[in-house]
Amino acid sequence: MRVWRHIFSEDTNPYTNMAVDRAMIDFYRKDSIPLFRIYRWRPHGFSYGYSQNAEEVLDIPACYKDGISFVRRSTGGGIIYHGNEATYSVVCSTDDIGLPAVVKEGYKTICAFILNTYRYYGLNPVFAIDSGYINKKKSTICFASFEDYDILINRRKIGGNAQKRHKKIIMQHGSIPLILDNAPVLKYVKEKLPLSAQQTTDIRSEIGRDISFEEFASVLKECFVKTFAVKLNEKALTLEEKETVKVYEEQLIQEKDYLIGDRGDKKYSA
Question: Terminus of the chain with fewer CB atoms < 10 Å: N or C?
Answer without folding.
Answer: N
